[in-house]
């Protein structure tokens, strides 16, 4: 666990009688793309809300590159770039203004912010849209802006919570390609929450959440072999069916 970018140990969170997370433990290896797969209601969003300091766990511990999210939240959050499930851009600001505002919130000096913004615009091929207001952009392009925004601070860890929600097939494909290229080129650790298996078929590791518990944890090949199927999607569905049968 000490070598992990993210270490989750015994994490639990409930809302009244509903147990959103129940003794969840797993690790995200440094430099990996780790997929957090789960059907709606599996606990993915609750887990991300705890990871990003929005919620406090009832029990357990989360650390990011060794910094405990509860004991040292500023240091832990400083390692992260985040793309939330719901858009967080200011629709009335331009693309460049959104990125500059985010850089300012993190206290980046002007020259560093300018370089990071230019790099993000170039990486996601949106330099020609820098002066456009965000409300004028398509959903897929807005997601590229959010990715560029998340990377302004050069984070060691990128958290993606259902980032392709609402995107068309082409935009989703471009987002997947961009994230995997980023991880390969910069060694950025990625934790990607989704229920769309095809997006993360190339992940280094897969953690399957089902009804608030870890139902499987391993490489795609290990999960496929364990379920005796021929694809990650088939393995995921088999794991989900098994979890539902046990609950029943």
UniProtKB/TrEMBL annotation:
One Pfam family in the UniProt entry: ABC_tran
Question: In its keyword annotation, does this UniProt entry include ATP-binding?
Answer: yes
Q: Gene3D superfamilies, alphabetically?
A: P-loop containing nucleotide triphosphate hydrolases
Tell me where in this chain the ABC transporter domain is found. Answer: 6-236
The answer to whether keyword Nucleotide-binding applies is yes
InterPro entries tied to this protein = AAA+_ATPase, ABC_transporter-like_ATP-bd, ABC_transporter_ATP-binding, ABC_transprt_ATP-bd_su_PQQ, P-loop_NTPase
Keyword terms of this UniProt record: ATP-binding, Nodulation, Nucleotide-binding, Transport
Q: Where are the transmembrane segments?
A: none
Name the domain of life this protein comes from.
Bacteria
Question: Can you name one GO molecular function term for this protein?
Answer: ATP binding
Q: Which PANTHER family match?
A: ABC TRANSPORTER ATP-BINDING PROTEIN (PTHR42711), ABC TRANSPORTER ATP-BINDING PROTEIN NATA (PTHR42711:SF5)
Q: Give the similarity note.
A: Belongs to the ABC transporter superfamily.
What this protein is called in its record is: ATP-binding cassette domain-containing protein
Source species of the chain: Lichenibacterium minor
């Amino acid at each position: 666990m000490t070598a992990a970018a993210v270490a989750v140990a015994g994490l639990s969170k409930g809302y009244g009688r509903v147990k959103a997370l129940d003794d969840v433990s797993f690790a995200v290896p440094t430099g990996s793309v780790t997929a957090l797969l789960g059907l709606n209601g599996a606990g993915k969003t609750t887990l991300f809300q705890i990871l990003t300091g929005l919620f406090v766990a009832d029990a357990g511990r989360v650390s990011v590159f060794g910094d405990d999210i509860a004991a040292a939240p500023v240091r832990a959050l400083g390692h992260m770039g985040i793309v939330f499930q719901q858009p967080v851009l200011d629709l009335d600001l331009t693309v460049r203004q959104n990125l500059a505002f985010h850089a300012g919130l993190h206290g980046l000096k002007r020259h560093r912010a300018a370089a990071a913004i230019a790099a993000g615009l170039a990486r996601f091929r949106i330099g020609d849209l820098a002066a456009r207001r965000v409300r004028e952009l398509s959903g897929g392009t807005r997601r590229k802006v959010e990715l560029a925004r998340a990377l302004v601070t050069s984070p060691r860890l990128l958290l993606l919570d259902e980032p392709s929600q609402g995107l068309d097939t082409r935009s989703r494909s471009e987002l997947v390609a961009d994230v995997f290229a980023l991880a390969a080129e910069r060694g950025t650790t990625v934790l990607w929450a989704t229920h769309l298996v095809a997006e993360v078929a190339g992940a280094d590791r897969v953690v399957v959440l089902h009804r608030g518990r870890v139902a499987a944890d391993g490489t795609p090949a290990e999960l496929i072999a364990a379920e005796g199927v021929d694809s990650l999607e088939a393995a995921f569905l088999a794991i989900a069916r098994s979890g539902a049968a046990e609950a029943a």
